Amino acid sequence: MSEIYDNARRVLDMAADAAIRSGRAAEDVMVLAASKMNGRENIREAYRAGFRLFGENRAQELRDKLAENAYEGAEVHFIGHLQKNKLKYAVGAVSLIQSADSVELMSAISERAKLLGIRQDILIEVNAGREPQKSGALPEALPELLEFAAECGGLRVAGLMTIPPNEADPEKNIRYFEKMAKLFVDIKGKKYDNVTMNILSMGMSRDFEAAIACGANLVRVGSLVFGERQYR
Ligand SMILES: *Cc1c(COP(=O)(O)O)cnc(C)c1O
Fold first, then answer.
1. Is the CB of 134 under 6 A from ligand 1?
2. Which residue from 132, 141, 133, 116 is spatially nearest to 124, judged by alpha carbons?
3. Which residue of 57, 134, 166 sits with most ligand 1 atoms within 8 Å of its CB, as the best mutation to test the pocket?
4. What percent of the chain has pLDDT over 70?
5. Residue 231: predicted pLDDT
6. Does the CA dihedral 205-61-78-217 come out positive or negative?
7. What is the pLDDT of residues 162-187, one digit of tens each?
8. Does the pLDDT at position 8 exceed 80?
9. Which protein residue's CA is at the shortest distance from atom 5 of ligand 1?
C-alpha cells in the first residue's frame, strides 16, 4: 500500500473519531482532500482509501484535472480565491464554491450560473482573524452578503468557510473556530432568503480535529494526506 493510501486512511479515521467525540456520527462530517499540486495518480490513491470529495484552489488547475477525469467521478469543491475572469472554470464544474467573499463575486457567480441554467451552491468565506492581506469577508459584512443572496437567482448560500491565521500554536485557532460556530448558529436562526446554513467548513491538516470539536461539518485536509507540497 502506498504512503498516500495509508495517510488517507488515517485522516479519515481521525476525522470519524473526532466526529464521534463531538457527539455526531462519522458521516455527519465531510472530509475533503485538498489536492492542489497533486496529479491523478496521487488523487487515485486517496480515492482508493475512501475519499469521495476533493478540493482545488486554482481555477486552471481544476479545469485541467477535470478534463483528464483526475477525480474518478468524485465530488469536487473550489476552495481558493476566485478571480472573476476565471470563474467560468469553477461555476457549474464543482458542486460547491467555498470562497465567495463579496457582493461583486456573488453577483458574477450568479450571472454565470444563470447562463448555464443552474443554481450554484456557495459558502461565504469569512476572514475570522481580520488579516488585512487575506481574502474573506469581515464578520460585520456578513449581513449585507446574506441579504444580497435573495437577489441572486443563480446561487444558493449553503454555509460559511474560514481559513484562520497561520498561528505558530494551532491551539490558538480554537478561538476562531468558536467564533465561526457562533456566527453559523446565529445566522441559521435569522432565516435569510436563499440561505440554508448547512455547512461550516473549517480546519486543515494541523487543526481539523479541533475544528470538528468546535462544530465544523466539513474539513479540508491536504498535506496530511498527500505529504508536504513542494513549492518551486
Ligand atoms: C491547501 C488548502 C487546504 C489544506 O491545507 P493543509 O494545511 O495542507 O491541510 C485547506 N484549505 C484551503 C483553502 C487550501 O487551499
1. no
2. 141
3. 57
4. 99
5. 67
6. negative
7. 999 987 787 888 999 999 999 999 99
8. yes
9. 222
In b/e form, how buried is each residue of 16-41, taking b as 16+ CB within 10 angstroms? bebbeebeeeeeebbbbbbbbbbeee
What's the rounded Cα separation, in Å, for the pair 33 and 48? Answer: 12
Q: Which residue of 82, 204, 226, 231 sits with most ligand 1 atoms within 8 Å of its CB, as the best mutation to test the pocket?
A: 204
* pLDDT for the residue 26: 97
- Spatial CB neighbours of 2, under 8 Å, sequence gap ≥ 6: 45
What mean pLDDT, rounded, does the chain reach? 96
Long-range Cβ pairs for the range 16-20 (8 Å, 24+): 18/208, 18/209, 18/212, 18/213, 19/212
Structure confidence at residue 168 (pLDDT) = 75
Closest CA to ligand 1's atom 11? 220
- Whether the pLDDT of residue 146 is over 80: the answer is yes
The CA-based angle 137-142-145, given to 5 degrees, is 90
Q: What value, to the nearest 5°, has the Cα angle with vertex 205 and ends 202 and 210? A: 55
**Cell digits for 110?**
450568479
First vs last C-alpha separation in the chain? 28
Place of cell 481521525: 14
For ligand 1, pick from 96, 220, 231 the residue to mutate: most ligand atoms within 8 Å of CB: 220
Q: Which three cell numbers stand for residue 107?
A: 453577483
Q: Which three cell numbers stand for residue 161?
A: 468557510
Residue 220 CA: nearest ligand 1 atom is 10
